[in-house]
Amino acid sequence: MAKKASFNAFEMARTQFDKIADMIGLDSATRDLLRTPMREYHFNIPVRMDDGSVTVFRGFRCQHNDARGPAKGGIRFHPQETIDTVRALSMWMTWKCAAVDIPLGGGKGGVICDPHNLSAREQEGICRGWVRQLSQNIGPVSDIPAPDVMTSAQHMLWMLDEFETIHAGHYPGLITGKPVGMGGSLGRKQATGYGVVYTLREALKELDIQPENTTASFQGFGNVSQYAIELYHQLGGKVICVSSWDQDDQTSYAFLKKDGVDLEQLRSITDRFGGIDKGKAADLGYEVLPGKAWLEQDVEILIPSALENQISGDNVGGISDRVKIIAEGANGPSTPEADEVIHKRGIFVIPDFLANAGGVTCSYFEQVQSNMNYFWEKDEVLGKLDTKMTSAFAAVNVLARNKKLYMRDAAYVIAVGRVAQACKDRGWV
Ligand code: NAD
Q1: What is the 8-class DSSP label of residue 207?
Q2: What is the pTM assigned to this prediction?
């Protein structure tokens, strides 16, 4: 048998796009424009390490499309980062901003590095170096970065400081995900996870299921998962399983508690990267299982919130017949092969760029607040977020219902249609 090609997120993003381009009869120029990022930057970042040596890190930024507004998207620090992953994620950001109808385009950045093995000073060096390489190519009216996997508010503040030093002024609208009190928005840390649950709540209504009659299993226990669990618990749902990456063993584990996980207890044994201490979890009565067990639980709801390419042709068969909804907290967690199976089984999918759009929506709110230098109360932020997510979900759901489309396809039809129209209206195609 031929060896299976390794996963490539950009190929997956293009496969998804091509399907929709065919479906809506997109002309060839618009297809060419949208299949590839408009601009991308690859560069070296030399950093003086704590021991006096210099390490050269590889950095990237892709601006996929900015027809609807400045490029917007996070910066990931990851040892396995690739330009194709960044390309795919920048494309998904374009669709995400269009799906929730905010005036921003799509961008993404990354650095090949592992913050687990870097001191704070070394990470600061990477952040400042990343901005020095891009200081002419990002900005409040062109491309606005944000935190993502293994980057935080502190990283954003170092980046902002470097940009403001180079440009000799204050530009709080350059970057989002800043610390509260330093231009950050209240509600930002909750935004993505809460956004997932706002759309989940609407999906449960659509399926006429009461949240308190449901259980859920999560992949990941980082920013997205923790806040999604918080709000899902408030709705009355029960989480029985979470999983996380174990840095020492270089593998993932699932943590099962049939009578429901205790969020605060789990948080207290979790490191800042979302890694749960397996020894302490076992002491607290959690069953510690191989990582993939999160997918095989007998629950109504699965919420993948770790990385791309986690539900694949190889493991999709392990999903229980009881599962009714998959809410994709992570970007690109389901491969097209797995997606076909999920679709055929009639599982209700809230696709990634709709489900996890709460982060960028709140980032947009942060940018608005930063630009006017006036900050809203947390309830106001979360109220506006709920309104945006609920209406984005409704638009996709109504289209899916009326045209008998799969939810992912319906979300794509709306998002690609809006971006294509903006390109046309600008006279680009
Ligand atoms: P995070 O770094 O805070 O947490 C990631 C979690 O996933 C950690 O608990 C880690 O241990 C776990 N993990 C990593 N590899 C794993 C594996 N192989 N198996 C099981 N668990 C694993 O990241 P986050 O901010 O929560 O983001 C998670 C996903 O959501 C990513 O795909 C990210 O791109 C996407 N996302 C995040 C945001 C945001 O605002 N944070 C917004 C939109 C999308």
Answers
A1: T
A2: 0.94
- Name the residue with the closest Cα to ligand 1, atom 19: 252
Structure tokens at 164: 């403001």
Whether residues 289 and 266 fall in one domain? yes
Provide the residue type at 55 as one letter. Answer: T
- CA 81 vs. chain centroid, Å, equals 15
Distance, C-alpha 309 to centroid of its chain: 13
Question: Do 45 and 137 fall into the same domain?
Answer: yes
Q: How many Å apart are CA 428 and CA 414, to the nearest integer?
A: 20
Is 108 known to be catalytic? yes
Instruction: Work out which ligand 1 atom sits closest to the CA atom of 306.
Output: 7
State which of 156, 183, 210 marks the end of a domain.
Answer: 183
Residue 424: domain span = 392-429
Structure tokens at 348: 């209700």
Instruction: Please check whether residues 351 and 396 belong to one and the same domain.
Output: no
Ligand 1 binding pocket includes 223 (Cβ within 6 Å): yes
Report the number of distinct structural domains present in the chain: 3
- Classify residue 316 by its DSSP letter: G
Tens digit of pLDDT for each residue in 384-424? 999 999 999 999 999 999 999 999 999 999 999 999 999 99
Which atom in ligand 1 lies closest to the alpha carbon of residue 253?
Answer: 20
Strands 287-290 and 251-256: antiparallel
Q: How many helices (H) and strands (E) does the chain have?
A: 14, 12
pLDDT tens-digit readout, 282-332: 999 999 999 999 999 999 999 999 988 999 999 999 999 999 999 999 989
Residues facing 72 on adjacent strands = 144
- At residue 379, the 3 state secondary structure works out as helix
Atom of ligand 1 minimally distant from the CA of 294:
20
Nearest CA to ligand 1 atom 1: 222
Task: Write the DSSP symbol of residue 67.
Answer: S
Residue pointed to by tokens 């605060």 = 264
Q: Is the CB of 252 under 6 A from ligand 1?
A: yes
Query: Distance between CA atoms of 12 and 393, rounded to whole angstroms?
Result: 23
